[in-house]
């Protein structure tokens, strides 16, 4: 079953259960300052859960474009290391706004997986929130999942991959206990079942989260009951496609094949040595992942910059460029993947097709810019890595990381990404200190420069007063800094 058919089957299944099919919202949330990018299907319904907004339906289903590359849910560092994480992915979801609750949610999910998709029941594991006896009983007594495949999990056990059965959109907002469904990819893959000490392997992969929305968490940490208990679910399209296509890694599904091939071709064409790299290199996966995140972000109106969403976009783009560089690319190649992405996903997401030219141009400009400095920056970083490896310290100092950022346009997470490949870390505290010092100096210098050009810029652009001038000076500084 192709990813496109899975998306359709999901939406039609829930439509047959009385759900209205609602279009994905943009990856850039409209008016939610608490959120950098849309990170879950429920985001566009946040106010409906909170009782501030009403819709003509009480059941909805969506395939939502999500980005998890910053904020509370950040998977940027997982990409290329796990079989299941992307920066951009599609989340299939069904929602009840004060309509059905635990019973129906669980039975719909089980019905779709075992009857429509015909997954073998014995390969499915479920987790429930430790105190949620009701959910436990539905799984065990009503659905018939044996006790040995139901795991009770608490909240906030910490750790990067640790299961957490209390779902929160962010530090504030709708939240509640959840129950999750995992698929066992078999004993040949390392990793233990959910809740076990080695659960962070890729054997038991979480495919679907069903959240029982019951609270609104406010900034003071207090949980206020929602007007009506609701349901919010999310299943990664790429993860369920992986299972249904009999694969283990998300990157093996149909949706990624053409993108990976395009990445390989584009990198080889930009490399003096041609395709002198491993065709299975994780770097190709990172590139195929990142072209989706970058293109969808640009399509929704973001451009690379030095702050906020624009900086996240710049960081992802530059990480992708660096992975191509690692394979041998010495000239811009990344923007050439936009065409392949449009061919793959343009039908489901027409905004890609409509903006193809602009996306290509924006990414190309960013690439041209970074290719001017990447070679010198990599030389410095390689030398620093060689030094720490000889010294056995395993850490790059903050000054070097800052110089790479300041002079060569290496966001610090890019430097850390390179270092991690060699088991070296970056002194983040030292970097932050160098950055703070530079900001202070540059701010003073920027103000001075602007003050000197005051007459000219005031005449040319229409002077908006000193307040505006200060803001401009800060922006000039920021651009100059990078
Ligand atoms: P994981 O524990 O694997 O990081 P999660 O618990 O953070 O996943 P949820 O917030 O529960 O994920 O999101 C709901 C579903 O969205 C997950 O069950 C999974 O199928 C999918 N999903 C989450 N993060 C990603 C990602 N980075 N890439 C692809 N799919 C994802
Ligand atoms: Mg996660
Ligand atoms: Mg999880
Ligand atoms: Mg989860």
TrEMBL record:
Gene Ontology cellular component list: cytosol
Transmembrane intervals: none
Taxonomic superkingdom: Bacteria
Catalysed reaction equations from the record: tRNA(Ala) + L-alanine + ATP = L-alanyl-tRNA(Ala) + AMP + diphosphate
Cofactor: Zn(2+)
Keywords for the protein's UniProt record, in alphabetical order: Aminoacyl-tRNA synthetase, ATP-binding, Coiled coil, Cytoplasm, Ligase, Metal-binding, Nucleotide-binding, Protein biosynthesis, RNA-binding, tRNA-binding, Zinc
Co-factor: note: Binds 1 zinc ion per subunit.
Record-listed E.C. numbers: 6.1.1.7
Family: Belongs to the class-II aminoacyl-tRNA synthetase family.
Domain comment quoted from the record: Consists of three domains; the N-terminal catalytic domain, the editing domain and the C-terminal C-Ala domain. The editing domain removes incorrectly charged amino acids, while the C-Ala domain, along with tRNA(Ala), serves as a bridge to cooperatively bring together the editing and aminoacylation centers thus stimulating deacylation of misacylated tRNAs.
Protein known as: Alanine--tRNA ligase
Covered residues, full protein: 1 to 482 of 885
């Amino acid at each position: 079953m192709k990813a496109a058919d899975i998306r359709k089957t999901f939406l039609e299944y829930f439509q047959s259960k009385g759900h209205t099919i609602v279009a994905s919202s943009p990856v850039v949330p409209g008016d939610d300052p608490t959120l950098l990018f849309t990170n879950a299907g429920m985001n566009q319904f946040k106010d409906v859960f909170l009782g501030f907004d009403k819709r003509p339906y009480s059941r909805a289903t969506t395939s939502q474009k999500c980005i998890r590359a910053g904020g509370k849910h950040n998977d940027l560092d997982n990409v290329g290391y796990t079989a299941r994480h992307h920066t951009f992915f599609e989340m299939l979801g069904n929602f009840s706004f004060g309509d059905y609750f635990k019973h129906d949610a669980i039975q719909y999910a089980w019905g779709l997986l075992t009857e429509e998709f015909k997954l073998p029941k014995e390969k499915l594991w479920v987790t429930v929130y430790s105190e949620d006896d009701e959910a436990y009983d539905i799984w065990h007594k009503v659905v018939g999942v044996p006790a040995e495949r139901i795991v009770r999990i608490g909240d906030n056990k910490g750790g990067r991959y640790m299961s957490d059965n209390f779902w929160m959109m962010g530090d504030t907002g709708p939240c509640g206990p959840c129950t999750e469904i995992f698929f066992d990819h078999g004993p040949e893959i390392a990793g233990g079942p959910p809740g076990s000490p080695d659960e962070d392997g890729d054997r038991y992969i979480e495919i679907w989260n069903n959240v029982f929305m019951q609270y609104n968490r406010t900034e003071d940490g207090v949980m206020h009951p929602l007007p009506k208990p609701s349901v919010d679910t999310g299943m990664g399209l790429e993860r369920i496609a992986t299972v249904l296509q009999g694969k283990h890694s998300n990157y093996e599904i149909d949706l990624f094949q053409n993108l990976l091939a395009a990445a390989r071709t584009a990198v080889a064409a930009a490399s003096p040595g041609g395709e002198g790299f491993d065709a299975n290199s994780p770097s190709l996966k990172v590139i195929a992942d990142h072209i989706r995140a970058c293109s969808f972000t640009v399509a929704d109106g973001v451009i690379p910059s030095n702050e906020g969403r624009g900086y996240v976009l710049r960081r992802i783009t530059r990480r992708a460029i660096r992975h191509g560089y690692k394979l041998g690319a010495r000239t811009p190649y990344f923007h050439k993947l936009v065409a392949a992405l449009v061919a793959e996903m343009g039908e489901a997401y027409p905004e890609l097709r409509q903006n193809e030219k602009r996306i290509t141009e924006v990414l190309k400009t960013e690439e041209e810019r970074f290719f001017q400095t990447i070679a010198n920056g990599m030389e410095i970083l390689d030398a620093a890595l060689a030094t720490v490896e000889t010294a056995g310290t395993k850490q790059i100092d903050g000054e070097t990381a800052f110089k790479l950022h300041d002079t060569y346009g290496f966001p610090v997470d890019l430097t850390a990404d390179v270092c991690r490949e060699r088991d070296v870390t970056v002194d983040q505290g030292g970097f932050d200190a160098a950055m703070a010092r530079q900001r202070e100096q540059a701010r003073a210098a920027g103000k001075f420069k602007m003050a000197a050009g005051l007459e000219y810029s005031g005449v040319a652009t229409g002077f908006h007063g000193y307040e505006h001038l200060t803001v401009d000076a800060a922006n000039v500084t920021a651009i100059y800094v990078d």
